[in-house]
Structure formats: structure tokens, C-alpha cells
Amino acid sequence: MSDNPKPTRYASWTTGKLPLPELAEMKRRGDKIVMVTAYDAPSGRLADAAGVDLILVGDSSGMVVHGRESTVAVSLDEILFMTQWVTRGAKRPIVIADMPFGSYEESDELAVRNAVLLVKEGGADAIKLERGGTSVARAQAIVGAGIPVMGHVGLTPQTATVLGGFKAQGRTAERAQQLIDDALALEAAGCFSIVLEAVPPAVARAATQALTVPTIGIGAGADTDGQVLVWHDMLGFYEGRSPRFVKRYAELGEAVVEALERYAEEVRSGAFPEEKHTYGMPEEEQAAFEGDSVERPLVPGEIGREHEQHR
Ligand code: KIV
């Protein structure tokens, strides 16, 4: 038996960082790839402990963490800081930093500069950018600079206004073909994987068959090579309206409120803190501290009598 047996929770086992080429191998073997978003060190550590393969430091943070209405206003600094936090917690999973709106569209140079920042200062293993079209050239430039790129087609929240809102995409034969063409162009540009968001399963299946790189679906049915969900959605932290493709695996928001209510009740009743939650001090030190030898402020009845002898 090997010294390093594959734990059952991993489809693919390595002692350190999951190597990027392993994702293509997983597609070839038919092993599903598991991806989740994370935005800080504890969530990175927990996703790693659960055997998740890919972590996305998504700009969905703008909505689920920072309470915005959309992802558009998310800044590069926000993604950079969150990537630093996540990579401190997650060791095995490949950590992908989402390039926020405005950080890559303008030119190849800007796209490469910002992708380099996310890798160099953020510690990201790879970056993700949205859409086909001009993003294909940006993806190619970033890959050319030596940084792995994940594509993202279908519902692309950064440009939801152009798409008519947060709506499923590729629902006509023509739009479905366009979506697959975009995915193929991103693959040709060197992307190592493509996210398919909110597209009918038939379209996701066709894209998955047409591409040699793995597809990661979100609201794209069961036939993609992997799945991604947003941390706050799947764990029940997000209060807003969740898309229909979200499955809640826990109701941690409710658990948090319940715990905080108990805490508030115990603080108010004096039940918390107990002796075991406090720090002791040596008895003689406490006696000296509480005794008359310790200087303490005079209380009103003592003022003017401070030189009287105490018996
Ligand atoms: O930002 C994000 O969380 C994403 C996923 C929904 C794929 O882009």
C-alpha cells in the first residue's frame, strides 16, 4: 500500500497543490471537478479541508459579501486582498482570481498587468475573465504571459445589462451556437477551462463534448465536467433572491442568528462569561492588589480623612 493513499473525498490526490494538467486528466477519466467560491482565509481552509479541487475568488463577493446589487463595481484591490486571504487558507486547491469589470477590457497590456498583479501579489494560481469577443484576445495575451486563464460564457454578470439582466443564455439555436463558438475561441486562445453559466443542459452538453478542456457548470445541468456554486448561496448565508440553480447544502445563516441570540441572552442575564472563560492570577498577587497596600482612588466618604489610621 502506498504511503500516500488517496482519501475517498478526493477524485484526484496529490500531497501538495493540485497540478493544473490534472484537470484535463479528470475530464478524460470522467471524474467530476468540484469548484466553490471563497473570499477569506477560513473559507479557503474549509474548502481545502473538504477536498474541493478549485476555488474561485469570485467577483460575486460584490453581491454576497459586500451587499451590492451587481458585480460591476468590484475593484481589482478587493479581488487582490481576498485572493491573498484565500491563498493563506487553501493549499491543495487551485485558486483562481476573478478579474473584475474594467480590469482587462481596455487592452492586452492592462489585462496582462492586472493578471500578473493577482498572481504575484495575490498568490493566485490562475485568473478568470468573462465573455467571448474581445476577451478572447485578452485571454490569449494573459496565457502568453504565462498565467493560466479560465474563460466564462453564458450569463456573464459583469455585462448583465447588455444581456437583458440576470437571465439564462443560449436559449435559441443561434445564441446556443454563438455561445459554443465563444467557448471554442477561448479554448483556442489557451484557456485551461471554461465556466458555463445559466445555459440549457443541451447547450452545456454540446459545449462539453466540443471542448477538450473541462467545462465547469453553474446552472448548466449535470453534463458539464464540473460544478461551481457560490459559498454564501450554497451554505445559506445569502438573504437575497438566489437563482434557481442554487442548492442549499446548509442553513448557516439561521445557525448564526440562533447562536447570536443565545449569546445576547446570556450576556443580558449574566450567564456569560463563566469562571472558565476568565483569567486567574496568583492568590498573593490578587490579595496584594485588593488589599490596602494597593493605591486606589478615594471614595466620597474618605475624602479629607485620607491620613486617618485604619484599624
Ligand atoms: O463570481 C463568481 O462567483 C462567478 C461564478 C458564479 C462562476 O463568476
Features:
311 residues; eight-stranded parallel barrel; 12 helices; 39% helix; binds 3-methyl-2-oxobutanoic acid
Report on the structure:
The protein is of the alpha/beta class and 311 residues long. Helix content is 39%, strand content 12%. It has twelve helices and eight strands. It has helices at 21-29, 41-49, 61-64, 76-89, 108-120, 134-144, 160-163, 173-188, 201-210, 231-234, 252-269, 283-290; strands at residues 33-37, 54-57, 94-98, 126-128, 149-154, 193-197, 215-218, 226-229. Strands 1-2-3-4-5-6-7-8 form an eight-stranded parallel barrel, surrounded by six helices. α5 packs across α6 (134-144). The longest helix has 18 residues, at 252-269. The radius of gyration is 27 Å and the shape is elongated. The model has no long low-confidence stretch (mean pLDDT 92). Residues 37, 56, 58-60, 98, 152, 195, 197, 218, 228, 230 line the site of 3-methyl-2-oxobutanoic acid. 3-methyl-2-oxobutanoic acid binds at residues 37, 56, 58-60, 98, 152, 195, 197, 218, 228, 230.
The helical percent reads 25-40%
End-to-end Cα distance, whole Å, is 80 Å
What is the radius of gyration computed over CA atoms, rounded to a whole number of angstroms?
A: 27 Å
* Major sheet: arrangement of strands: 1-2-3-4-5-6-7-8
Mean pLDDT: 92
The biggest sheet, with number of strands, parallel, antiparallel or mixed sense and barrel status, is: 8 strands, parallel, barrel
Counted by DSSP, the helix tally is 12
How many distinct beta strands?
A: 8
Structural class: alpha/beta
